[in-house]
User: Fold this.
Amino acid sequence: MVKEKQVRSTAAKQHIREILSKSETAMSQPEILEHSEGICDRVTIYRVLDRLLHEGEIHRAVGMDGITRYASCRQCDHDHGHQHDHLHFSCEVCGEVTCLEKVVPVLKLPRGYQAREASYMISGICPDCG
Amino acid sequence: MVKEKQVRSTAAKQHIREILSKSETAMSQPEILEHSEGICDRVTIYRVLDRLLHEGEIHRAVGMDGITRYASCRQCDHDHGHQHDHLHFSCEVCGEVTCLEKVVPVLKLPRGYQAREASYMISGICPDCG
DNA sequence: TATTTCATGCAACTCTGTTGCATTAATTAC
DNA sequence: GTAATTAATGCAACAGAGTTGCATGAAATA
Ligand SMILES: [Mn+2]
Ligand SMILES: [Mn+2]
Ligand SMILES: [Zn+2]
Ligand SMILES: [Zn+2]
Assistant:
């Protein structure tokens, strides 16, 4: 039998979860750090984010800039299982990365390729900045 | 009048261009460095890559791992202008990132969003590793 | 409350990428 | 070919994101 690691609720975790669920956009670790009011060390932020990822509460989006951002899971297609294959939009003016949960790109993989995870990012100008 | 910067052909540039055009897959800077046989400094590689990017000879793909990889432009839809909106596939076993130039995802951006650049990445298992 | 197990802080480290500046090399004009 | 011009390079130093080891602190549970 495999003993599962217990899921523990800590101050840092609750705080970070709240920061992300209140945010309209996906946030990078430094951004989260800024909003964390020194509740914990930056290393702890990374570790909490990892846990939230594995527990399926949040998902991540790597931008064209190579920066990883995190967002809480809202309408992540919970109908057909929990998927994170929606589009992310990165504004070149304000720098914000937005989950477009309703936009799921359509494509056909060539024979032999097995998909496990998807990451779709479009950069440009967002409605606020356009 | 705006004086354009002249395009100069140097040993490092030719070498790096060749490395990329001979590669079947997209390469990261460290990978390029490995294959460069000490022809130049690593900083020069970054600078050459920037130039090749701006000159439209290569394009880049940021993986889910946040690592930037470069690939020379081959069938990048030169019919309808030079686009780089094809899919990239990242194998979780061998780690290689492949340009799938023929696969262009279809989607519809919500009103107000203006697209300028796209990055589509799918990770999973490639034909060789499957 | 005692025990167990996980989470945290801190320091040190790795990796990717960038910048300043003096030197070198490719173009171009002569 | 030679000189003048301007871009490319090397090197060192730096910046930022993310990771790791280890001692300490805090949840969960019994
Ligand atoms: Mn989700
Ligand atoms: Mn191209
Ligand atoms: Zn914007
Ligand atoms: Zn593979």
